[in-house]
Amino acid sequence: MRYYQQHVFFCTNLRDSVRQSCQRCDAQAARNYVKQRCKAVFSDPRAIRINSAGCLNRCQHGPVLVIYPQGIWYRYDNQNDLDDIIDQHLQKGEIVERLLLPAPPAL
Ligand code: FES
C-alpha cells in the first residue's frame, strides 16, 4: 500500500569537483518551485510528495528527477519544463516524452 500517490525526488547534490552535479543547475530552486506549485494544485497532502535527494547516479543527464511509483526519470532545463511535468505528468498521468532520460542498459 502506498502512502503517497506520487513521490518526486529531485537530485540536489552539489560536488566540489568539476564533474557534473545537479545543484550546479540550481536544482534546489527547481524543487522548491515544484513543491510550491503542487501545494496549490493538490489539496490532499498524500496525493504528492516532493523531496530533495542526494546523487541519483544519473549525473551526466542532470539536472534530473524521478517520479514514483512509475519510476519515470526526467531531465529539466527551465521552468517551462517543470510546468509541463506538473501539468501533464503529475496532474494528468501523461508522460512528457521530450524530457525523458534515455533508458538504462538492460540488467
Ligand atoms: S549529481 Fe544529480 S544525479 Fe548525480
3D architecture notes:
The protein is of the alpha+beta class and 107 residues long. The chain has helices at residues 27-41, 79-92, and strands at 6-11, 48-53, 64-68, 72-75. The protein has a single domain (6-99), classed as Glutaredoxin. It contains 2 helices and 4 strands, in the order E-H-E-E-E-H. It has a 4-stranded mixed β-sheet, covered by helices on one side. Strand 3 and strand 4 (72-75) form a beta hairpin. Helix 1 (27-41) crosses helix 2 (79-92). The radius of gyration is 13 Å and the shape is globular. The structure holds FE2/S2 (inorganic) cluster (FES). FE2/S2 (inorganic) cluster is lined by residues 11, 13, 21-22, 55-59, 62, 64.
Search tags:
single chain; Glutaredoxin; 2 helices; 4 strands; binds FE2/S2 (inorganic) cluster
Q: What percent of residues are in strands?
A: 15-25%
Q: Which ligands accompany this protein?
A: FE2/S2 (inorganic) cluster
Extract low-pLDDT stretches: none
Kindly state the percentage of residues in helix. Answer: 25-40%
Stated plainly, the CATH topology is called: Glutaredoxin
Shape: globular
Distance between the amino and carboxyl termini? 27 Å
How is the biggest beta sheet arranged?
A: 4 strands, mixed
Domains, number: 1
